[in-house]
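Reply to dn_fold:

You asked what the input looked like. This is it:
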Amino acid sequence: MPTTPRKDEQERGLAHQRALMVERHVAARGVKDERVLQAMRDVPRHRFIPQAVAEKAYGAGALPIGAKQTISQPYIVARMIELLELRGTEKVLEIGTGTGYQAVVLSKLCAKVFTIERVNELALKATEIVRELKLHNVSVKVFDGTYGWSDQAPFDRIIVAA
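and this is what came back:
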């Protein structure tokens, strides 16, 4: 489907906002891994939050995503992922999917992401976004993350965002 000039302009504006978010709220606070910074520049954070707070998508803070849950602030997402020291070949388990933002950022940095969310409506939203973004290395499961994901174990890294 061809894009319209207005749609292209909107996408460029959002990409600029993402770049500023990474520069001001992530890199400026000490995250140095260029792969993490680039993944965050690439992932459309506004897709993972309700329309009512979309204008705040590229700010410094956590935002509500429904079901009394939040999407973590960009710096926290970046720092947690940076600490994983991913090389690109890893199989990662994420506990606490939310709407999938961190899982999608992870998908740019490792081989496979298995992510668990206990709130069905959030897991469904995450699954929908993963499908729309045409990602094939992210699997979402509705489950209690305290039990892990035994039939996919072992994992090279585990990240807990719950």
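The beta strands are 63-66, 69-71, 91-95, 112-117, 138-142, 157-160.
Hope that clears it up.
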